[in-house]
Predict the structure.
Amino acid sequence: MTAEPLVLGFDTSAAHCAAALLRGDTLVAEALEPMTRGQAERLMPLLEEVLAVGGATWDDLDAIGVGVGPGNFTGIRIAVSAARGLALGLEIPVVGVDGFEARAETGSLAAIPAPRDQVYAALPGEAPRLMPRQEAEDAARGAGLTFAPEASPAGLAAMIARIATQRKDDVTAPPAPLYLRAADAAPSRDVPPALIDG
């Protein structure tokens, strides 16, 4: 009899560090820590803690699932980079899972809060995009769907791990961040110094 796969899922796409360990369909360990900064420093220790609670080591893993966004640019890069590095070092597949899949519930419009009273949402029959919160709320109501966007829902990392478990044998490329808006950063307005030939 083949042992059930052990899959680690994690996400840092919003103001949190989330991780979960699944053995087959069974949730072995889970953690969700709210934080506005410090995900880069906290992620690896949190993953090690989740593995320890599950009585597992890195070498026991069969696959990794990672949240690829949309959400916070820096947070997405932290998780995706960590997942790609771990998968390479451990020689196991890594599955990227977008935030809409991880939040999908029957009868609900999967949406993720964004800055300036906007949300990331995938309206029925449309590609996901950034839109005003009111537009998404009206569309959800018109389609008979509930609308309750949440940045850090309970069970987020566990759902990422569940999806990764289903897809781990079909991985063809490393995960890539899902960005649906331009970066907030802008080029410096300072005039560059004059170069002196000399």
In short: Residues 1-103+152-179 form a domain with the Nucleotidyltransferase; domain 5 fold (CATH 3.30.420.40). Strands lie at 6-11, 16-23, 26-34, 63-67, 94-97, 111-114, 118-121, 129-132. The chain has five helices and eight strands.
